[in-house]
Q: What sequence folds into this?
């Protein structure tokens, strides 16, 4: 655990003061599902049932964020798939699936929470996330994002989607708020 702590602390320390401030201002963490909480692959069995792969360290990161802050967490997914609902419920996170237009859903959630877009961190990976990146205070692309998404992001994770990227984001937010989780 010490190596991870030092690595994440080192990553945090390399951020610009402006980026550290953006992490610190976060009051709502919004996550895309496929490619962010998953490795962007879908597995289909002979019965047609779809499954995905998620990283348990992402789950723990979200739990730590909930435990040590009052930051809201929200999942927006284009996919209308029971796996999104099942994962969100297990993580105890509010979600919307089947969102053809993520920006409309995001605007509603920001208004509901009475926040400024500047107080929102959006983590995404693909072209349907671009509008959300442009609206929020902190747009984060996972390491294996589409090149356009990566090019407009405020921060690009060291980890890939579904492989610890969300944990990385959670820890950076915690460091920005001076929360000692270890």
A:
């Amino acid at each position: 655990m010490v190596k991870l702590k030092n690595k994440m602390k080192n990553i945090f320390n390399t951020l610009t003061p402006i980026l550290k401030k953006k992490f610190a201002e976060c009051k709502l963490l919004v996550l895309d599902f496929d490619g962010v909480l998953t490795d962007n692959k879908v597995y289909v069995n002979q019965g047609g049932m779809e499954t995905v792969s998620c990283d348990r360290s992402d789950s723990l990161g979200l739990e730590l964020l909930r435990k040590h802050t009052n930051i809201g967490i929200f999942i927006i997914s284009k996919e209308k798939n029971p796996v999104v609902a099942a994962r969100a419920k297990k993580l105890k996170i509010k979600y919307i699936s089947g969102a053809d237009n993520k920006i409309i859903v995001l605007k509603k959630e920001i208004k509901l929470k009475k926040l400024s877009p500047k107080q929102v961190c959006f983590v995404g990976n693909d072209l349907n996330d671009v509008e959300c990146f442009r609206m929020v205070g902190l747009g984060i692309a996972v390491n294996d994002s589409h090149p356009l998404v990566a090019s407009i992001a405020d921060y690009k994770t060291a980890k890939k989607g579904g492989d610890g990227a969300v944990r990385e984001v959670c820890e950076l937010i915690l460091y920005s708020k001076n929360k000692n989780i270890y």
Summary: The mean pLDDT is 93. Residues 17-176 form a domain with the Rossmann fold fold (CATH 3.40.50.1000). The helical segments are 2-14, 17-24, 56-68, 82-91, 102-113, 130-135, 147-152, 165-176. Residues 126 and 171 are 23 Å apart (CA to CA).
